Amino acid sequence: MKTLPIILTILLFLPLASALDCSLTTEETYCESLTEYNLTDTELEQIYSILLYESTDYPNHDFIQEYNLDIEITEPVTNTTDSTYIKNAWLSILTVFPSVIENDIIYTPNITQVLSAYDYDVQLPSDYRASRYPYTSSGDCKRTNHLTVNDAQLSIYFNSIYQDNQELTELQIDSNGTIEVELQISTTVRTKHYEWDRYTRRCEYDDSTYSSDSLTLSDTLDIMYYNITPETNLTFTGEYWNISRGTFSASNYSQFQINFNNSSYTSQRYYYDLVFVHQPYYFAYLRANNYISETVQGMNVYNNIFTVSTPTECNLYAYNHFFELNTSCDLTIYEQELEQLTIEAHDIDFTILIYIITIILLFIILFKLGKSKFMFLLLFLLIIPTVHADDEECGITNLADCIPEKIYEYFLTIINAPILPMLSIIQDLLTVDIDIEVFETLWSVVRYVISFFYVFIFLYTGYVFLTNNSDPIKRAHAKELLRNLFIMIILIQGSFYLYDLTLDINSTMNSTLIEYVDEEFFLITVDSIVNVSLELVLGLTYAFTLLFTMILLMLRYILICLGVISLPIAIFCYFIPPLKPYGKFVLNMLGILIFVTTFDLLIILACSMMVDYALFDDFQILFMITAFSIVNASLIFGLMSAFKMSTEVSLKDDLRQAVKYMALVV
After folding, report:
1. CA 77, CA 69: separation in Å to the nearest integer?
2. What's the rounded Cα separation, in Å, for the pair 587 and 614?
3. 3-class DSSP assignment, residue 489
């Protein structure tokens, strides 16, 4: 029944109609009602497509084949052609299936079927018989015509190569080309001639003549070969605290799905409807229309990067116009691999071996002389970043540079490991496109309950108009209430979609801003002694600040999800004068909660840019803590401001204002 509101909406605005075979549709009653409207052919076909084909997200070729083969032809499909004896001859390619029309081009797979049809009549000359002797016609006292040959030969060609002679022909193709059907009709008529016997005056057989007639008809259809198959890939790149992270890619698909245990992701690029040809028979082709849609449930997805509760099952499913792919995922985690040490082949040189042994002995001696001083020296060497080219490989000849570099990278990875999950979650919470589809049912219930009050407000305003004709003030208030009611109904009915649009705008703005923030700004680095000292002192403070930020952003996420339910109530209260402060409070709170993250990202971006100044090179950890402290302060201040606004008007004042308003209007 989901198609019913769409059809009724179209009928309200469309001005012509003709009869259809409504028994083929799932909504036969509504289809038959189309005859009551004047619909154009295009409008009629659009509605018929909606009624006939419901699986718009999937190319159901079996349905199209069954539908087309069930159509019976009783009249010519195209214009007819006449010859001497051959009359009303026609030939047509009715349809090709499986096939899909995209951008006015017919695509078919390597195996497809061509359905064609033809018909013709043979009209013989009139017979002649003289009424009496000696009347004749062209010397004949009697003349009769008999059809001796009546042959029709159908031929199917693809790129001028003969395929078959059946009306339903299967083709195997491997390139673009042209389908051609040709019909050759041949007839021969025998004419018997009779002449008068002048002695007996009887009309007797004399001889026979033969005359032939032939006609050739043809029809063509251009098609393109479609051999593109869907391609998918999914790789798990890490796992933190039972949260898995990974990347995926997909191409050449109409719909692509990732299915985990209790979560999923769906991307749709096309939807399908029907295109009709050869009216009034309405042979159907599938048509693919561009349509971009993403649905996320129970996971976070951004730029083909996902985070999800560590799954035990995973499945990838994709299909396009003709092909589908269904495969399970590889749950193995492929973490980023460190550059492997490689040993290049060199001539044997014992000098290098002597150097290595000397270095080892030197370290042993230093360690024996003073353990504490040696450990301090070793720590100092590790925290000093070593510079070398990215494309230089580790080998025997550069161990002195390579080993400290690898130890340095590993050391930074260990230091940042505890904060990486929190940073990942904070980034997702700042930029995620919040999915409110799961709350649409609750939103519908709230909207339905509020709609009961519309009738009472209409009755109330009508009562005021009828009983206060002489009071212009009360009539003005009643007019204002009626106007507000119409505005309120429109906003409440569209509140879900307005709310979703607002969230999309905010997510787009945030995703754009975060791309300009340097990723290393959030990480602990070892780039100077001063900064290292500050990180040792303030590292724990930074971690707690991130934890607090994550909690506040989760609270914001929950409140925004619940906001779609409270938005219709807020709009209703806003347009009822005694309840306006409460409606205004909810609207202000939702506005602050939605757009506060944009302000937060601007602060983070500004702090990340200020770190590049030479003056602040050694104070990166302070800017990191300051940035997230401002984020926390903005979230807390936003919530406190909204609650403060709600307390500006007391319940006693609200009751007093409600009594005054009722007294004024009544």
Report:
1. 15
2. 44
3. helix
CB 116 within 8 A of CB 92: yes
Residue 655 has pLDDT above 50, yes or no: no
Question: Is pLDDT at 379 greater than 50 in this prediction?
Answer: no
CA distance 316 to 266: 10
What confidence score (pLDDT) does residue 578 get?
A: 76
pLDDT at 178 over 90: yes
Tokens matching residue 383: 């925290």
Average pLDDT, the chain: 77
| Angstrom distances, CA of residue 650 to CA of 573, 576, 582, 585 | 16, 17, 11, 13
pLDDT of residue 56: 85
Name the token pair of 494. 């569209």
Q: Residue 111: beta bridge partners?
A: 172
Q: What is the largest CA-CA distance in the chain?
A: 157
Is residue 588 within 8 Å of residue 570, measured between CB atoms? no
| Token pair 């078959």 in the structure block, residue | 164
How far, in Å, CA of 319 to CA of 326, rounded? Answer: 9
529 Cβ contact partners less than 8 Å away, ≥ 6 residues apart: 383
- Name the band, by pLDDT with cuts 50, 70 and 90, for residue 408: low
> Could you identify the residue written with the tokens 């780039």?
527
Q: How confident is the model at residue 566 (pLDDT cuts 50, 70, 90)?
A: confident
Q: How far apart are the first and last CA of the chain?
A: 44
Structure tokens, 312: 């035990």
Tokens of 350: 């014992």
Q: In what order do the strands lie in the sheet with 86-97?
A: 86-97, 111-122, 168-172
CA angle 566, 569, 573 (to 5 degrees): 135
* DSSP H helical ranges for 81-200: none
Name which of 36, 106, 119 is nearest 80 in CA terms: 119
- Which is more confidently placed, 584 or 223? 223
Residues 63, 99 contacting (CB under 8 angstroms):
no
Beta pairing class for 100-102 and 283-297: parallel
Q: What count of other Cβ atoms lies within 10 Å of the Cβ of residue 245? A: 19
Instruction: State residue 483's pLDDT score.
Output: 82
